[in-house]
Structure formats: structure tokens, C-alpha cells
Predict the 3D structure of the following.
Amino acid sequence: MKVGGSLITRKSEPMAADVPAMATVARALSSARNLILVHGGGSFGHSVAMSRGMSSSSVSRDAESAAATRLAMHELSLLFIRELVSAGLRPFLFHSSLPDSSEFWDRSASLVRGLLEVGATPLTHGDVGLTSGGFRIVGGDEICLRLAERLRPSRVVFLMDVPGILADVRDPSSLIPELDPASARDLAGRLSGADATGGVAAKLSFAASIAELGVEVYLVSGRSPPDILKATAGGRPRGTLVRGR
């Protein structure tokens, strides 16, 4: 499950956490089993990365900016971990340090399997990774794809601050209930990126790639505990389903 940064922070205000939203998500997840969590950067990681010219599509040799962005993500993650622990979960944080290494992702998948076996909740977040020539941002949506390729979960859920993918972003009733991967990519191509990892356009592209693995992908509101519960219990939440083969 990817918990969107726009859900747990106030993206219009730098370094502003939405702790009540974190608590709502954590309580809704308290009874979930075999859960893998990834959270986004919101107004923490994205604001710092963008102010320093860092993104997922470019490489930077600026170690100071990499450190500042990582620090912002650690601060956000600590706040979220506190809410998860308060709700009775047992989060175990790991990092996505080498995003372009297949061996790294293989080891990460092994770590996740081991954590699930002992009753922990694997947790990671969008991060700064080391790649050839320097650093780049590795977004939470990309992390979901890399783990899904190796773990093949029954579903991947993206919690958003809206009810799903909307045909008209100003109209919550314009929810698109279902997309196939081709339609998701077509829609992504007509959207523009709005943050350091490409915004909703990139999210749809990654969702399409995950769906093509045969994994159901749901994009739902993280402000609706009943839909979070349905999503984690194998039900059909209100939102957008990207259905693969």
C-alpha cells in the first residue's frame, strides 16, 4: 500500500505534516495483515527536492541536497511511524538506497518476506538513491513497482487525497471507476507532472505497469476509513481500479 504524501502532509505549506490524516490511516490499517507500506514525500521530501533541483528523472552530484532531502523524509517518516505504533502496528523501516540495482531490489524483497514472517509491517518511503554518476529521487510509486515485480501481491493500493482518478479534478463525482493499462497510460500522457516524481501522470504509468504483472491496482481515498478497510480486506473499495491481464 502506497500512502500518498499529499494525504499525510499539507502540500501547499513546506514541511507541514497532517498528523490527523496519518492517525486516520493508521487506525484503519490496525487490523490489516501481510501489509507492506510505502509513503510519499508530500510537502517534506518534494518541497526540499524541488527547491534544490532534484527529481526522479535527473541525476545530481550535490551531496548536500541529497542529505537535506533525505533528512526531510526521515522527519516525515518518524511522525508517521509514531501514529502506526500508536495504532498497534509494528513498522520496520528500510530504505531504497540503490534504485537502479536489480540485486538491491531482490535483497529488499527478501527482507520484506522475512519481516512479514515475524509479524512486522515493512515500511519504506520515497527517497534519495545513489545511481551511476550521483543521486536521484526514487519515488514511492516506483518502489511499489519494483517490489510488486518480485513479490507479486494480490493487489497494490494507492491511498490518495481524492476518491481516485477523476475525469475533472474539480468534480469529485467524475470518478473513473476502471481503467485498463493502455487507457491509464493514455490518460497519463495527457497529464503533466507536478512534483519531483511526476505527480498523478507518473502514478498512472506505474499503476499500469503493476497491473500488467497481473496485479490489481486500486487508487482510493485515504480519507475514507471504510474504503481503506475494504482495500486491505480484499473487497472492492470506491475508487479507480486499474485491471491488468
